[in-house]
């Protein structure tokens, strides 16, 4: 009889010990990841922290309906809020969001799409002068700060027929380190070669030309737009956008405009559109902190 009575406490102790061990491992992993991010000088807001930050804003921008509805997040971007207008990241709808800080840009990344939701940069005439003459490395790399299940891989893009299209352009980067960081796959979407190499390149050049002449800071948001059922590439099933967009904003003057380009062989319009028209097409309201038009 005594043996039977002793088995139950032993089982409870084993279960409790297992939970304690798993909790200790999780705590160590979280501490280690945070310490590593701080050591390399980058900032990452994990999914568990990002989902539901700051304020419960309404969903902004249309995303396809995955198995779980996208969370609306206002990510902290603690180490790089200076990349945002007024230092305020917008609240946008994003499935499995992760906030990533880089030296010269910030990315709100979707672990479901395995692409950016948006990237944001602050361009000045000084930073763009510094960017001139810095050679491209063209060394694309997988973003090791992301959980493996969230990462796009180099293999996903091979043989897909799509380019690895920069959202924050390499040509905007003011240092060699920033330019190297721009080749992270966390900064890429699958882009049709005719768009990436021709029309989108011209839009990037036009934006750079304007910002290089401006006396004020110019903020640029760039991102993908997806259809209701996105096509995918690779074993990782990276989402292919139906279009890519760019929003240009000058806080001092209140000027804002956008570009919208279908992700196909073209022809593509290079004409800017009003911000209202951008929102009407399904673009996210990334300028929530700006005064109304």
Label this structure with key terms:
293 residues, alpha+beta, seven-stranded antiparallel beta sheet, 13 strands, globular, disordered N terminus
Walk me through this protein's architecture.
The chain contains seven helices and 13 strands. It has 293 residues and is an alpha+beta fold. The strands form four sheets. The chain has a seven-stranded antiparallel β-sheet. Strands 2-3 form a two-stranded antiparallel ribbon. A two-stranded antiparallel sheet has the order 7-8. β5 (106-110) and β6 (115-123) form a beta hairpin. α3 crosses α6 (193-213).
Short description:
The chain is 30% helix and 23% strand. The chain is α+β, with helices and mostly antiparallel strands and 293 residues long. The N and C termini lie far apart (81 Å).
How would you summarize the topology of this molecule?
Elements: H1 2-40, E1 43-45, H2 47-50, E2 71-73, E3 92-94, E4 97-101, E5 106-110, E6 115-123, H3 125-131, H4 154-157, E7 163-166, H5 176-181, E8 188-191, H6 193-213, E9 218-225, E10 231-233, E11 238-240, E12 243-250, E13 255-262, H7 275-280
Helix pairs in contact: 3-6
Shape summary: globular
Flag low-confidence runs.
1-60
Number of strands: 13
Question: Could you tell me how far the N terminus lies from the C terminus, measured between alpha carbons in angstroms?
Answer: 81 Å
């Amino acid at each position: 009889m005594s043996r039977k009575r002793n088995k139950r406490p032993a089982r409870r102790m084993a279960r409790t010990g297992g939970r304690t061990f798993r909790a200790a491992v999780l705590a160590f992993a979280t501490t280690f990841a945070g310490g590593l991010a701080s050591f390399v000088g980058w900032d990452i807001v994990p999914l568990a922290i990002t989902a539901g930050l700051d304020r419960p804003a309404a969903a902004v921008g249309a995303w396809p309906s995955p198995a779980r509805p996208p969370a609306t997040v206002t990510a902290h971007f603690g180490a790089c809020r200076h990349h945002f207008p007024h230092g305020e990241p917008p609240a946008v709808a994003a499935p499995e969001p992760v906030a990533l800080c880089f030296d010269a840009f910030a990315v709100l990344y979707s672990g479901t799409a395995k692409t950016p939701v948006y990237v944001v940069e602050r361009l000045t005439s000084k930073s763009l002068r510094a960017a001139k003459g810095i050679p491209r490395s063209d060394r694309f790399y997988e973003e090791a700060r992301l959980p493996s299940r969230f990462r796009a891989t180099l293999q996903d893009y091979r043989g897909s027929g799509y380019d690895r299209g920069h959202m924050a352009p390499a040509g905007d980067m003011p240092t060699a380190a920033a330019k190297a960081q721009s080749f992270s796959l966390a900064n890429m979407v699958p882009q049709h070669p005719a768009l990436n190499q021709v029309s989108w390149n011209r839009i990037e050049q036009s934006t750079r030309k304007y910002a290089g002449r401006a006396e004020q800071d110019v903020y640029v948001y760039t991102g993908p737009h997806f259809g209701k059922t996105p096509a995918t590439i690779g074993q990782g099933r990276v989402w292919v956008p139906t279009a890519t967009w760019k929003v240009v904003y000058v806080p001092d003057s209140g000027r804002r405009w956008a570009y919208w380009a279908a992700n196909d062989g073209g022809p593509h319009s290079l004409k800017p559109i009003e911000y209202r028209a951008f929102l009407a097409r399904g673009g996210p309201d990334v300028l929530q902190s700006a005064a109304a038009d």
